[in-house]
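Re: the 205-residue chain
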Amino acid sequence: MQPIILASTSPYRQALLGKLGLPFTAISPQTDETALPGEPAEQLVERLAKAKAADVASHLDHGWVIGSDQVCAIHGVILGKPGCYEQAVKQLQQLSGHAVTFYTGLCLWDASNQQHISIVEPFTVHFRELDASMIHNYLRQEKPYDCAGSFKSEGMGICLFERFEGRDPNTLIGLPLMALTDMFRAWKLVLPLTDSSAYERATAN
């Protein structure tokens, strides 16, 4: 079994990939994540997912490299990571009572032959009406300043939502595992639930 490399040092993506029970290593890609002028969210995340995977794969002679990128968009406008309390307040005020879509680009790259496949997975979140006290208390307790949209859905951020629309809730955190599993199966990668004996042999070392 070729090694699996996650082109990200995000602890959230690493925790998600760990759910699949496959051994992997994580490497930080050196990628300029600046959006091109007028670039739509869907095109941006797919381009960056490919670029991250390609960058890591360029230093390898074999292995499966996973690249992923995510942006949050409301009314076609991309929201970045807030970075601080004041910006997080502004973002949550903007999201209050509205639907926001997260677009996650995913790329699986074969470093041995430079073949790759990629997709964009959308996931929509409908926010409750948020008052100033709710926003302040949430940010004070969870401090989600490194998260696009200023919330952590795997934590207390779930209390900010009315409902979800999407295939895979893992997409919201940053790595669409259902789509990734589809990619693995399409390229005949061994998965724990498809052939346990082959999986045990492949991961024995």
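Residues 196-203 have pLDDT under 50 and may be disordered.
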